[in-house]
Amino acid sequence: MAGNNDIEKIIVGYPLSNSGEKNAMTGVLDRFIEDLCREFPLITVETINEHHSSRDAQRILIASGTSRKVRQQKGRLDSAAACVILSEYLESHQ
Asked: Are 53 and 84 in contact (CB under 8 A)?
């Protein structure tokens, strides 16, 4: 069993189209995932469709009362979208 600081798995948001098909960005992510697997062969890399994560994150930030100024800060939406992706992954693997 891994210790508290040992990484066992990396979850990667995978950008599929509305119809679930690969697009230009999925090719970029495929190469990134290959590099991760080569660099960290003992760590499992899993993907989850991130198609609506930014939209869902924006809705969550608005519903939580986060101001427009804060929502527009660099990285704020990406961080919230990463939380959405991880949450969806965890819900689907209970």
From this structure: yes
Query: Do 84 and 51 form a contact (C-beta atoms < 8 A)?
Result: no
Domains of the chain, by residue range, sit at 10-46, 52-94
pLDDT class for 2, splitting at 50, 70, 90? low
> 3-state secondary structure string, 7-76?
CCEEEEEECCCCCCCCCHHHHHHHHHHHHHHHHCCCCEEEEEECCCHHHHHHHHHHHCCCCHHHHCCCCH
Give phi and psi for 11, each to the nearest 5.
-100, 125
Rounded Cα gap, residues 51 and 33, in angstroms: 18
Please write the tens of the pLDDT for every residue from 40-55: 999 999 999 998 898 8
Give 27's pLDDT tier (boundaries 50, 70, 90): very high
The pTM score is 0.76
